[in-house]
Design a protein that fits this description.
The chain has 285 residues and is α/β, with parallel strands linked by helices. The protein has 10 helices and 12 strands. The protein has helices at 33-36, 40-56, 71-80, 93-107, 125-135, 170-176, 188-191, 197-206, 210-217, 247-252; strands at 16-21, 61-67, 83-85, 112-116, 140-144, 151-156, 180-181, 220-227, 232-237, 242-245, 263-269, 276-282. Strands 3-2-1-4-6-5-7 form a 7-stranded mixed beta sheet, sandwiched between helices. A 5-stranded antiparallel beta sheet has the order 10-9-8-11-12. Strand 11 and strand 12 (276-282) form a beta hairpin. It is elongated.
Length: 285
């Protein structure tokens, strides 16, 4: 890690304010729709909850501002301790981040600010701490995502504009803007954003937070019985509870056959004794 300094444009013993942007859940994580179906909004919220919880547990973080117009998500994230700011510009991701940074500095002039993706469900506070400590040396710095194309974190020292350029190949744009790339190993949880089923598998392998773990567990089961004549059968939830499904649930999943022992993704309605499976298909994450 570069030697830390206390000169102008750097942060010594930094206490950061993080700005986390979150789309309305109805449209968030659209690339996951094919893999997780109707569970997509719930997963997007779980990702954000684990991101915010992980950030707030980091010793270098003073507060987290979430920029969102989703009232349900805002309420849940406020419950964790985040401050919710409406997306007043309503002009896309980077405008939302600029707006959030201004909201932070309206209350804490000259605060060190970092933009952080809302889809880091495996976020580990010690790894975030290392990233922020490294970023504190520079006026602006960024961390590339796991794919090496995008950005998961962009920082700005006190009195330095954030100037975000997230979206698509943002790693190159942030580098071209003068931000210094943070070159750290073993901070995979801060790089592992989730846009696709493959990303979700990787995050689950890393070890996700409790919100994502709980939500994803409700989406998974093991095929237990199947009758090809009636296209009905049952699955075993991961706690061992058997739950039957009827032909409409099987047909909704687009399957032709189901073998006992296969891992499946399910969508459900109701809870407890009234839990009903509305879709069963092969697990894709």
């Amino acid at each position: 890690m570069p030697e830390r300094t206390g000169g102008k444009g750097s942060v010594t013993n930094a206490v950061w304010s993080l700005v986390v942007p979150l789309k309305p859940l109805a449209v968030a994580k659209s690339r996951l729709a094919r893999a997780v179906g109707a569970a997509r909004p719930g997963l997007a919220l779980a990702f954000a909850q684990d991101t915010v919880a992980g950030a707030l547990a980091c010793a270098a973080v003073a507060d987290v501002v979430v920029v969102t117009d989703d009232p349900a998500a805002g309420a849940e994230l406020a419950r964790l301790g985040a401050r919710i700011v409406s997306d007043a510009p309503a002009a896309g991701l980077n405008a939302a981040l600029d707006h959030g940074a201004r909201a932070v500095r309206a209350g804490r002039p000259g605060a060190a600010v970092a933009a952080l993706n809302a889809d880091l469900p495996a976020l580990r506070p010690p790894e975030l701490q290392r990233v922020l400590e490294n970023a504190s040396v520079f006026p602006r710095a960024f961390l590339a995502d796991a794919a090496g194309i995008g950005t998961t974190l962009l920082s700005a020292a006190p009195d330095v504009e954030l100037t975000p350029s997230f979206g698509g190949p943002s790693r190159a744009r942030h580098s071209a803007s003068g931000a210094v790339e943070i070159a750290l190993a073993d901070v995979d949880s801060v790089r592992r954003d989730v846009d696709t089923a493959a990303d979700l598998r990787s995050a689950l392998t890393l070890g996700v937070g409790r919100h994502t773990a709980r939500y994803s567990a409700r989406m998974q089961a093991t095929a237990y019985t199947y009758d090809s004549r009636t296209r009905s059968g049952s699955v075993l939830l991961d706690d061992g509870t058997p739950v039957p499904f009827e032909a409409p649930a099987f047909d909704a999943g687009g399957l032709r056959l189901l073998r006992p022992g296969q891992r499946v993704r399910i969508e459900t309605d109701g809870a407890g004794a009234s839990l009903r499976i509305t879709l069963v298909t092969l697990q894709t994450f």
